[in-house]
Design brief:
globular, 34 strands, mainly beta, 7% helix, 5-stranded mixed sheet, 4-stranded antiparallel sheet, single chain, 428 residues, disordered N terminus
Amino acid sequence: MLRTCLPSTIALAFVPLAVAAQTVTDLPRADRTLALRTEEVYRIGGADGAEWQELARVTQAAFDAAGRLYVLDAQSQRVVVVGADGTHVRTHDLRGDGPGEFRSPVSLGVAPDGTLLVFDLGHMAFLRFGPDGRFLGQEAHGPDQGLPLRGFQVDAQGRVLFSGDGLRIGAGDAGPADRRPIQRVAPGAGSGVETAYDAWRLPPPERPVELSPGGGMRFSMGDAELAFAPGLHFGLLPGGQLAVTDSVGYAVKLVGAGGRVERVLRRPLPPRRVGERDREAYRRQRMEAARGGGGGGGRPGAVMIVRGQGGGGSSGGSGSQTVTLDQKAIERMVEQQLEQTTFAQERPVIAGLATDWAGRIWVERTAEAVGAEGPIDVLSPTEGYLGTVPADGLRLPLAFGPDDRMAVVELDALDVPTVVVRRLTGLR
């Protein structure tokens, strides 16, 4: 079986779960504005940074309990570790097939004690490094188990949690069409993958997408895309609970041990109907992203091909390879995908969710205009609604850290990234 992962062209969609007899907390309808401030702690990167700060494409980051920041530069295929004061700790940048070497690192997570886990698509495995940087081992994680391509989180026990929205290939049981798991795996423990919470999804169209970029190549992407379907967003809370949203409406579920929903925080904010203007805006933005994502001017772009068991390749089994396509081929594939895209009837109220080290839940709401940034609600599992950050205010960071720290990425005129660590003030 052959499928493709096109990071700039695949929208991973999905929707709500019926709530049984849990505690439901109704939050107020009217917004209360939060005037939050931040102060800069340090910054790394930029065109004038030291050699270790030279960043090309920062995709993910995470903090440990000591305030160290771990930055994944996907283009340079390395992880930079920075101390709480902004000094360089180490860089993981060995490439190859040896112990602790990267082939294609795509996501990372960090345990509170500083244990670093990197999912490498080339090895199809989790690589573990101790708090001192020593390589601890590598555990295979095949595509039939679901791939944490969009990132993952690590709990206090060192277990990895990732969304079932990810790509799944091969003989593994994908489960019912209206369900998608938050999966949990303990690398090195040999316990396999288990379901931390079985979230709801809006079933996608049951028809495969066939893409032909030219040159005799054909790609199958599984089910057709369902645009504007609710995403599955979750975050870890300090006590071990998960804050989860998977609905069309405004419902944040607090999930405890055994995947049981213990409480639901909801606001009476209705979803908005999808109109033709929304559909056209979606198609236009997808094509604009494709024209920019391939490099423009006929320059080539890269497409990652992921194979399940029996998919061929040099290993004869699961694995990945990169195929280079020119700009016109990439645009042609996006056009073909959009021709086969269907649209949900309503746009979900919630567009994103994150949790911070103080136990607060940051809920980004969907903006009225497609592609625009919406306001962000700040919730507490115990106190409920704390207030709302306006759409033109503070945004969800790349990572939250201890001591109210947050890491954000800034791009200069040449798209050279700088990672800025700031400390949040004005919210307790």
